[in-house]
Amino acid sequence: MREVTRIPVCAKCLREPQPLAAEFFCVSCRTPFLNAFPLDAAGRCALCRAGLRGFDAAYCFGSYEGTLRELIHLYKYTRIQTLSRPLADFLAAALPLEERFDFVTPVPLHWRKQWQRGFNQSELLARAISRQRSIPFMRTLGRTRFCLLYTSRCV
Question: CA quadruple 132, 138, 140, 144: dihedral positive or negative?
Answer without folding.
Answer: positive
